[in-house]
Amino acid sequence: MKSLKQFGVLAIKSKNKYTKSLTNRIIATMVLKIILYTFFLIVLYFILERIASGKIWYGNELFYSLLSLFYRYMSLFFIGSWFLGCFIIIYLTLKKALSYVDKIVIASNELIDGERNKRIELPEELSLVENRLNQIKSEAILNLDKAKLSEERKNDLIVYLAHDIKTPLTSIIGYLSILNEANDMPKKQRLKYLDIVLEKSYKLENLINELFEITRFNSEKLILEKEIINLRLMFEQIKEEFYPLYSEHNKDIEIDISNDILLKADSEKMARVFNNLIKNAINYSNKDTIIKVKAQINEQLIITIQNEGKEISKESLNMIFEKFYRSDEARNTKTGGSGLGLAIAKEIVLLHEGKIEAQSIQGITTFTIFLPY
């Protein structure tokens, strides 16, 4: 997300770019005016000189002394007029140019403090600066809206998680109280209650981890430490880690990756990407289905993770990589996480100069990662 400071830097860069063009136009206009003014004085000088030299003056004529003096010093008069005229042209040009600075300063204030829907307006000469400032203003408003929406989602998520945390915690306290009070409880029933407490404890741990994930995402700066990775071996390890989760509903993970595909990347962070995508595929796939993982090289490395389940709406697909986004369905199920997994995955892939896409057609959902190879 771009900060106001970053937008200020963009504004300065764009202003420098257009100011250079504007300065050239102002100087060109000023030079043209001086040339035209000089040409006018030269023409006027020769006209007056011809008139004056072609006439015989008599001492008794009206204004004889004045005209005689003018004729004698006509060259000096025109030189002085030229300097005076140039000074006036330069003064008026600089005054107009400085007025542009005032207008740009006012427009910059409107950029930050102005009405959201009010367009910044500048003189026609500053149309390029006007368009750029309005573009920056639109981008700033759009990013502020995104930041506000993200903050609202985060707050909503914290409320949901706080409520979800309370539920297993209440159960844990309740069952532990029963176990503490009923010393003569049958062993079979005691083991059953202990299993319930353990299950609720795991649930509570997952929810607390999600809260830590939110905090870590806001403060963590991702720095890559690249190394050579055997892609198939990495997915085999991930498959083994998730075995209890996918085998519970008779699911399986099929890996179609050549053993000689090596990837130069940050192993820890890419493992986080693949973990998030595999976990997402397991949680939202149908029972008795196969999650397919495939990788191929076609000018770049293309990795696909595909599962069969409920089709994802176009609206959700457009927002699925935004942080803290969870669909209403995810919110109401035990599979709904913090809404950070896919956002983090996208950020890590972008840091590796790649991209990630998602599509869902007739219940087949496919996540595709493109990485330079």
Instruction: Kindly report the spatial arrangement of strands forming the biggest sheet.
Output: 2-4-5-7-6
The biggest beta sheet reads: 5 strands, mixed
CATH architecture term of the largest domain:
2-Layer Sandwich
The value of Rg in angstroms is 38 Å
Task: Provide the β-strand percentage band.
Answer: 5-15%
Distance from first to last alpha carbon:
28 Å
Low-confidence runs of at least 5 consecutive residues:
1-15, 328-336
Question: What is the string of SSEs from the N terminus onward?
Answer: HHHHHEHHEEHEEHHHEE
Count the beta strands.
7
| Helix-residue proportion | 55-70%
- Return the average pLDDT rounded to an integer: 79
Structural class: alpha+beta
Number of domains: 3
Instruction: Please tell me what the overall shape is.
Output: elongated
CATH-assigned fold name of the largest domain: Heat Shock Protein 90
- Could you give me the name of the CATH homologous superfamily of the largest domain? Histidine kinase-like ATPase, C-terminal domain
Query: Count of helical segments?
Result: 11
| CATH class descriptor name of the largest domain | Alpha Beta
